[in-house]
Structure formats: C-alpha cells, structure tokens
C-alpha cells in the first residue's frame, strides 16, 4: 500500500469524494443566517482539504524519479510477475476486509462533514456546542454586526484628533471610506503619530479577522496581497506626500545646523550642540558608535546604502510612516467590502438606542434562548412551514397605521396626535377659491347640527338639575333648582 501509484490513485479518489461532499453540503436548505454561515464554514473546510490533496498530487506527478523507480520495479522482467502479484494480493486482502471504506481512515473524515450534527436523541436535554458561535462575541451576533467599540475608544484617544465622535458618527466615518481613504478627516499631525499607527493596525487586524470568520468562502488573503501590491506601486511612484513629515524632511534635506552622528540628531545652534557634548546620553552614544561598524548617517552628505529588507533605507523621511500608510490603504479596501455589514451595524445600534433598559434586557434573554435545530428531513417542507409561520405572524392592520419599533402598528390616538393622517399637500392657486367656498358650504351645513347638539346638552343639564333631590334640616325633599331658590330667599 506504499506504492506511489497507489497513493496517486487514492488521492484522486479522496478528491472526488470531497467534491461530492461539497455538492451535498451546498445543496442543503439554508433558511437562516446561522445555517448559511455554518454551511459556508463547512464548505471552506472541504475546499481546504481539496487544495491540500491537489498540492500533494501535483508533487507526486512532479517527482518523475520516484515514479520511474516504481514502474521499473514492476516491469524489470516481463516473465517475472512475482512483485506484481504480491502487491495485488495485499490490495485484494485489504478491500476484502474493508469493502466499503477508503484507506487511511478517510471515511471517518468524510463522515464528519456529511454529518449535520443534529441527530440528538429525544431524551437528551442538552444542546450541542456550536463551534461557529464561539467565534463571535455577543455584540457581533453570529457575524451579523461589527463590534467596533474598542476601536472607537482608541480613535477618541488619539492626539490632535480635535472633536471626539460618538459611536454612530464613528460608523459614518468608516462608511465614508467607500469614496476616499479611511480617516482622511484627521489632521496630518494626528495620522503621523505613533498612536495612530497602533490604532490603524488594531482596526485592520480586527476587520481582517471578522471577514475570515463571517465570510469564510472569500479569499481575503489574496485580496489583501493584491491591495498591498497596488500600494507598493503607488508608493514607488511617489504618491506619498501626505505621509511625509515636513519637519523631518527639512532636517534630512540639508538645513543649516550642526549634525551629531553619535546621537543622530541635528542641532540648530552651536551653543546647544556644545552643551549636549558633556551629557551622559552623548557619551554613551559615542561609545556605542565606536564599537559599531555601521557608518554614521549625515543628511548633509551621501546616505548609506544599507537596506531594511524591502528596498528602502531607514533614514529617508518618506519611509518612516510607510507602515501606517500601508495599513490605512489595506483597511480602506477591507471597509469597502464590509459596507453592507457596516450599514446593518449602524441600523442595529440606532434601534438599540431607541429601546429602554427593560426592553434591552428582554432582547438579551430572547437571544440567549436556544433555537430549534432544522434537520435535513424537515428541510424539504421548510418553505411550506415558513409560509405558514409568516401567515401566522401577519399583523392585522386595516387602518394602514405606521409600524412602531416592535413591528406592530402604533395606537390610533398616537396617529391622530401627531397629525399623521393630515394631508399637508399644497393646493394649486387656481383651486384655492373653490376649496375655500366649499369649506364655507360645509360650515353652513354644520351649524344646525351644532345648535341641535347644544340644545340637547342644555336639556340634559336642566334634567339633571330638576331630577336631583336635596333634603333640608327638617326632612323636606326638594329638587335641586327649587332647593337653591329657597335657600337664596332665606326660607331654608
């Protein structure tokens, strides 16, 4: 079974089985966001295994010497087939013992992908751990939203930032990266600081990690390599003026002053230069320079030819902020691919801001409840069940009232209070005269009705006054009007 030809055949068979498994996984119903993401992760794992076996198979085909040795061992003497039948007998014995299996335990690996992981017994009361759910934080909600609160805090702590932004405006800043480089709103002094480089590095790391977890079928690594190559081309063409520190450029450009090769610093005045010669820092730097073979760097003279490994010299001012510039470019490309998720994140934050504390707690409790698993058997009738559930959840709204934050129609009194039913459309000037007199005609028709209602109201008040009975101190009973008249006359 160690024959290189048999390994070749076996590898081809495994690739074919993985391709069939990939088709089976992708053809399953994906009704929810969770099932879609689980399917994508499983498909990505299968593709990784196919790629690794293709690489192995390619290496075997490239190794012509081993293949030639194997073939020569089987065909050295055409009349002697002992070696051939010996190997054939081993293969037959193996498949007679394991007729339905693939060599090297491959069948177990394949079954792990085809198993949906939802065949729990009815007596089991525990829920299986979901490895995909463990990849995301509670704020990310299974890869639906971005969790940028830590990056938002780091952004507001940058130096020379000016005005600090609330979280929603910070999301708007990231969304603006569709049309320009991210954080172009920051001042140049802020973007050239060390804090900004650390911030943009953390933001790029998070976005790259989220994309890998939420979009496993996207080859984000290749996209980032292409973006990095595009950045290198722009940088080589000199499109880096916004990342050059003008003060450092002046110093390295040969501005008049005194250069200290030991301290690697330019001093503008002779007195300042003489004062630093006796400092401990200068003495220590001089001793270190004497023991070092590296020549001193003088911006007024020729620059040294040593390189940092990427073709640039460290003393050039445009290379000092190259890392921050590249991370900003790569982060911009990542944000452009995450625009839908950013929009969903902003909508979710706005919705949560409108909830009360009690409503937020209730939402967290509902999210923590385990969701019923959807088995492949139920997937066949999934669409019909979804339609029935949609009909059950259909809201009765005959008045066509607007929906509130909970998805239900707002109360009718609130609809009238805000004047949502009023037609505020401006009427043309030629119709205003007609509409005015039309309203007057309606008023004339309404006056008799109003008078009738007024009379009925007065009669009702009179009846209440005449029907109500009051008793005096002597026990005599009068209606309310008579009682009040006698009392005014002093007879009671």
UniProtKB/TrEMBL annotation:
Gene3D superfamilies: Classic Zinc Finger (3.30.160.60). It is found in: Nucleus. Residues 282-319, 360-391 are annotated as: Disordered. Residues 305-318 have a biased composition (Polar residues). Residues 360-369 have a biased composition (Basic and acidic residues). GO terms for cellular component: spliceosomal complex. Its main location: nucleus. The keyword Transport does not apply. It comes from the Eukaryota. SMART domains: ZnF_U1. GO terms for biological process: mRNA splicing, via spliceosome. GO terms for molecular function: RNA binding; zinc ion binding. Keywords: Metal-binding, Nucleus, Zinc, Zinc-finger. PANTHER family: SPLICING FACTOR 3A SUBUNIT 3, SPLICING FACTOR SF3A-RELATED. This is U1-type domain-containing protein.
């Amino acid at each position: 079974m160690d024959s290189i030809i048999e390994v070749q055949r076996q590898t081809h068979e495994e690739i074919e089985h993985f391709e069939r498994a990939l088709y089976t996984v992708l053809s399953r119903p994906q009704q929810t966001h969770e099932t879609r993401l689980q399917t994508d992760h499983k498909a990505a794992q299968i593709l990784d295994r196919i790629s690794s076996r293709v690489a192995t198979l390619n290496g075997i085909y490239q190794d012509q010497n081993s293949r030639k040795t194997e073939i020569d061992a089987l065909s050295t003497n055409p009349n002697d087939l002992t070696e051939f039948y010996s190997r054939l007998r081993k293969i037959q014995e193996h498949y007679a013992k394991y007729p339905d299996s693939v060599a090297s335990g491959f069948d177990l690996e394949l079954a792990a992908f085809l198993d949906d992981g939802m065949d729990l017994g009815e007596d089991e009361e525990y829920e299986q751990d979901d490895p995909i759910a463990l990849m995301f934080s509670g704020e990310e909600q299974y890869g639906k939203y971005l969790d940028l609160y830590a990056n938002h805090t780091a952004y507001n702590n940058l130096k020379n930032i000016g005005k600090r932004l609330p979280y929603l405006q910070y999301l708007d800043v990231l969304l603006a990266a569709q049309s320009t480089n991210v954080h172009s709103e920051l001042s140049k002094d802020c973007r050239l600081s060390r804090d900004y480089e650390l911030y943009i590095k953390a933001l790029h790391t998070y976005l790259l990690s989220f994309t890998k977890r939420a979009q496993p079928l996207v080859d984000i690594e290749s996209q980032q390599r292409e973006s990095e190559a595009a950045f290198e081309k722009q940088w080589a063409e000199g499109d880096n003026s916004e990342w050059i520190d003008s003060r450092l450029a002046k110093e390295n450009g040969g501005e008049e002053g005194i250069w200290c090769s030991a301290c690697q610093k330019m001093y503008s005045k002779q007195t300042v230069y003489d004062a630093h010669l006796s400092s401990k820092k200068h003495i220590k730097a001089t001793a270190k320079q004497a023991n070092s073979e590296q020549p001193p760097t003088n911006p007024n003279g020729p620059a040294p030819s040593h390189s940092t490994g990427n073709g640039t010299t460290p003393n050039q001012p445009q290379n000092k902020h190259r890392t921050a510039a590249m991370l900003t470019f790569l982060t911009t490309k990542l944000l452009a691919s995450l625009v839908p998720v950013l929009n969903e994140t902003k909508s979710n934050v706005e919705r949560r801001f409108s909830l009360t504390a009690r409503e937020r707690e209730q939402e967290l409790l509902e999210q923590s409840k385990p969701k019923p698993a959807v088995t492949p058997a139920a997937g066949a009738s999934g669409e019909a069940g979804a339609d029935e559930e949609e009909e059950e959840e259909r809201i009765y709204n005959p008045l066509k009232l607007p929906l509130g934050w909970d998805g239900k129609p707002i109360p009718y009194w609130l609809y009238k209070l805000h004047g949502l039913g009023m037609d505020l459309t401006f009427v043309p000037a030629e119709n205003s005269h007609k509409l005015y007199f039309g309203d007057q005609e309606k008023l004339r028709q309404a006056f008799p009705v109003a008078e009738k209602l007024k009379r009925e109201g007065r009669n009702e008040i009179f009846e209440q006054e005449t029907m109500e009975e009051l008793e005096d101190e002597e026990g005599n009973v009068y209606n309310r009007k008579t009682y009040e008249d006698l009392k005014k006359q002093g007879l009671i």
